[in-house]
Design a protein that fits this description.
This protein is mainly α. Helices cover 78% and strands 0% of the residues. Helix 1 runs antiparallel to helix 2.
């Protein structure tokens, strides 16, 4: 039998606990910011994808196909190593003056996840009877106003379950940011393992924390669904 001495104290106190706590803070910041931005961008892309203007619809479709069918890790590396080639100089100067690794991870996670969110929202929009759009337009609403006040509120209610999945995927995918040096939870767990050779304890702690984050996201979104989107279901 393998003789392995478990030492859980290294992750419950001292500097290694502080490392993991610091990584958790970065993971929460990275996930929360990316979730908000990805939802807003996905909402916009879904509306553009259903536009009656062909060039707009083509650009939105190309966006979805490109970012849905390329690996997230490749996109992270692209924004980290190649963003200076396509972004304006002012944007590059601002990024390099801040936490560039963190910013590159946010950009990659936002764009990648927004492509999936857009398709989920578009499915929700297509499930709304087209007569509602026709009634809104006949009442004098523009296409965008009809979407804003009539269609999208209903579509978002319908797409809450798939949106929860996308938010969970984003929170878990945030661990890939360690590949460009973002000191999030997985990065810090790897650091603890490197210094202590206690990989089981370090990554068990990280696994439990990711599980708690996922359960918390699920609970929060369902609370929002019950109390805001469908208040008649709240008890």
């Amino acid at each position: 039998m393998l003789k392995y001495h478990f030492d859980w104290s290294i992750i419950t106190s001292g500097k290694y606990f502080d490392w993991l706590l610091s990584g958790l803070k970065v993971t929460l910041e990275l996930s929360a910011l990316s979730i908000v931005l990805a939802f807003l961008l996905g909402l916009l892309i879904a509306v553009l994808r259903m536009s009656h203007v062909k060039p707009v619809r083509f650009v939105a479709s190309a966006y979805l196909e490109f970012f849905r069918n390329t690996p997230l890790l490749v996109q992270i590396f692209f924004w980290y190593f190649g963003s200076y080639k396509i972004l304006p100089q002012a944007a590059n100067d601002w990024l390099t003056s801040t936490n560039f690794e963190f910013a590159a991870a946010v950009i990659a996670l936002t764009i990648y996840t927004s492509a999936f969110i857009a398709e989920d929202i578009r499915s929700g929009i297509l499930s709304i009877p087209k007569e509602q759009m026709e009634a809104a337009r006949s009442a004098g609403f523009s296409y965008l106003r009809s979407m804003q006040y009539i269609i999208l509120p209903q579509a978002v209610r319908i797409t809450v379950p798939p949106l929860v999945n996308q938010f969970l995927n984003l929170a878990k995918n945030s661990s890939l940011a360690m590949t460009i040096g973002v000191a999030e939870l997985t990065y810090q767990a790897r650091q603890v393992e490197s210094y202590t050779f206690k990989g089981f304890e370090a990554f068990t702690a990280a696994t439990v924390v990711y599980l708690v984050i996922s359960v918390s996201i699920t609970w929060l979104v369902h609370q929002y669904d019950r109390r805001v989107l469908n208040p008649h279901r709240a008890v």
